[in-house]
């Protein structure tokens, strides 16, 4: 074989060994070290970002829940207010109605009293007039002067008779 | 094939001729420069948001990290990232270099362009380098007592086999790489040589050449991966107590 006959190529061996070692050292020191550093840094950053994103998500969810709760509360409150308002208006209208009814009742009462009083007055005046008229008529008719007191009594008795009827 | 590398023997040391394989030296240097260039262009800007080449380099680094993590704890193995990265990348580039074309001088058939990994000395040198490094780090990280005790584990009579294993590891690691790439190149030369012999053969051999080149790319990638992976496997055997 060629290799055995020519012996070991020590030159090639040393050269390749030196070349490889130098290349490895240079690459390791000047390229891979900073590159690994930046890769690690990036990894850390990505991890941080993921953590932050998770944190933000949780926070956002919390906010959302809070908002939802608030909205619900506001809705309930609005409903309550509305109900209260309608109740109040109903009450008010009822009150107004009641008042009006009372007023009407009162006015009616007053009117009835007025009428009663008028009627009484009218009756009184009629009674008086009838008394004096009947006296006058009687005077004229029978030409006889009657005692006014007696006359009145007589008329009263007549009227009572009429009323009783 | 009569293709032969260019040799240069400038002097002798202790009666041994110091021979340089100039072809291997040139091609390996070029492979190293390519790796250097790619790595530095990729790592130059060092952006938090990587683009283009930096993405690629980071992907390779991540790949190496995967190889290391598959074998040992990252706290122990993190220091070997440069070794794994350089092995993977340089061997890959070296394997690829012989695929598009090979160059040889017309008169003497001296090869001046090939895959440097098809040189057994280079492949074995890398393998020996890796194995020696595993011993160095084994002693450094676990202490010489633990390191020596490992030769008698799990049973004392396994000691001879443990010694053989170290040499076998070196040989197989280097020879596997050399054998694959060398075979790829030999068959490539045969196919291309046949194709170049006449116009008719050229037409016939066009498709096989393409197929073999595709297979060469596959083999080259695979061998680079295997070399880096095995280097880390051997390393983990030495630096991790088990």
Automatic annotation (TrEMBL), chain A:
Q: Which residues form a coiled coil?
A: 50-121
User: What Pfam families does the database record attribute to this sequence?
Assistant: ATP-synt_B
Q: Does the keyword rRNA processing apply?
A: no
Q: List the Gene3D superfamilies.
A: 6.10.250.1580
Chief localization class? membrane
Q: Does this UniProt record's set of keywords contain Transcription regulation?
A: no
Q: What keywords would UniProt list here?
A: ATP synthesis, Cell membrane, CF(0), Coiled coil, Hydrogen ion transport, Ion transport, Membrane, Transmembrane, Transmembrane helix, Transport
Cellular localization per UniProt: Cell membrane; Endomembrane system
* InterPro entries in alphabetical order: ATP_synth_B-like_membr_sf (IPR028987), ATP_synth_b/b'su_bac/chlpt (IPR002146), ATP_synth_F0_bsu_bac (IPR005864), ATP_synthase_B_chain (IPR050059)
Give the way it sits in the membrane: Single-pass membrane protein
What residues form the membrane-spanning segments?
12-32
The Swiss-Prot or TrEMBL record describes its family as follows: Belongs to the ATPase B chain family.
NCBIfam families per UniProt: ATP_synt_b
Assembly and oligomerization: F-type ATPases have 2 components, F(1) - the catalytic core - and F(0) - the membrane proton channel. F(1) has five subunits: alpha(3), beta(3), gamma(1), delta(1), epsilon(1). F(0) has three main subunits: a(1), b(2) and c(10-14). The alpha and beta chains form an alternating ring which encloses part of the gamma chain. F(1) is attached to F(0) by a central stalk formed by the gamma and epsilon chains, while a peripheral stalk is formed by the delta and b chains.
Q: What does this protein do?
A: Component of the F(0) channel, it forms part of the peripheral stalk, linking F(1) to F(0).
Tell me what this protein is called: ATP synthase subunit b
Source organism: Geomicrobium sediminis
From TrEMBL, chain B:
Q: What superkingdom does the record give?
A: Bacteria
- Chain ranges passing through the membrane: 20-41, 80-101, 121-139, 186-204, 210-234
Identify the CDD domains for this entry: ATP-synt_Fo_a_6
Alphabetized Pfam families for the sequence: ATP-synt_A
**What keywords sit in the KW lines?**
ATP synthesis, Cell membrane, CF(0), Hydrogen ion transport, Ion transport, Membrane, Transmembrane, Transmembrane helix, Transport
Name the InterPro entries for this protein: ATP_syn_F0_a_bact/chloroplast (IPR045082), ATP_synth_F0_asu (IPR000568), ATP_synth_F0_asu_AS (IPR023011), F0_ATP_A_sf (IPR035908)
Query: Where are the annotated coiled coils located?
Result: none
Give compartment(s): Cell membrane; Membrane
Question: How does this chain sit within the bilayer?
Answer: Multi-pass membrane protein
Identify the PANTHER family for this entry. Answer: ATP SYNTHASE SUBUNIT A, CHLOROPLASTIC (PTHR42823)
Task: Give the family from UniProt.
Answer: Belongs to the ATPase A chain family.
Q: What does this protein do?
A: Key component of the proton channel; it plays a direct role in the translocation of protons across the membrane.
Name of the protein = ATP synthase subunit a
- What is the native source organism of this protein? Geomicrobium sediminis
Gene transcribed to yield this protein: atpB
């Amino acid at each position: 074989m060629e290799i055995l006959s020519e012996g070991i190529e020590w030159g090639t061996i040393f050269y390749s060994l030196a070349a490889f070692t130098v290349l490895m050292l240079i690459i390791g020191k000047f390229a891979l070290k900073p590159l690994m550093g930046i890769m690690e840094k990036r990894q850390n950053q990505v991890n941080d970002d993921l953590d932050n994103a998770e944190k933000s998500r949780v926070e956002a969810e919390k906010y959302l829940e809070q908002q939802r709760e608030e909205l619900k509360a506001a809705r309930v409150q609005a409903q309550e207010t509305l109900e209260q308002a309608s109740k109040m208006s109903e009450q008010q209208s009822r009150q107004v109605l009641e008042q009006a009814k009372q007023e009407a009742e009162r006015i009616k009462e007053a009117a009835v009293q007025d009428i009663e009083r008028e009627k009484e007055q009218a009756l009184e005046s009629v009674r008086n007039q009838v008394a004096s008229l009947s006296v006058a008529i009687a005077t004229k008719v029978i030409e006889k002067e009657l005692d006014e007191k007696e006359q009145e009594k007589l008329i009263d008795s007549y009227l009572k008779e009429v009323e009783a009827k | 094939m009569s293709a032969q590398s260019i040799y240069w023997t400038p002097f002798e040391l202790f009666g041994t001729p110091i021979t340089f394989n100039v072809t291997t030296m040139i091609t390996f240097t070029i492979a190293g420069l390519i790796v250097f260039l790619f790595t530095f262009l990729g790592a130059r800007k060092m952006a938090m948001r990587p683009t283009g080449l930096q993405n690629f380099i980071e992907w390779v680094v991540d790949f190496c990290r995967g190889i290391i993590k598959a074998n040992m704890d990252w706290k122990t193995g993190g220091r070997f990232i440069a070794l794994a990265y350089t092995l993977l990348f340089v061997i890959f580039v070296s394997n690829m270099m012989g695929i598009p074309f090979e160059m040889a001088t017309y008169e003497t058939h001296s090869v001046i362009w090939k895959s440097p990994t098809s040189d057994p000395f280079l492949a074995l040198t890398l393998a020996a380098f890796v194995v020696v490094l595993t011993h160095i780090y084994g002693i450094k990280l676990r202490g010489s007592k633990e390191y020596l005790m490992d030769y008698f584990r799990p049973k004392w009579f396994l000691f001879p086999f443990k010694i053989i294993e170290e040499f076998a590891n070196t040989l197989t690691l280097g020879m596997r790489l050399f054998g694959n790439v060398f075979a790829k190149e030999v068959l490539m030369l045969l196919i291309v040589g046949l194709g170049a012999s006449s116009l008719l053969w050229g037409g016939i051999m066009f498709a096989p050449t393409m197929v073999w080149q595709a297979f060469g790319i596959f083999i080259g990638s695979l061998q680079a991966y295997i070399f880096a992976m095995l280097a880390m496997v051997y390393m983990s055997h030495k630096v991790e107590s088990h």
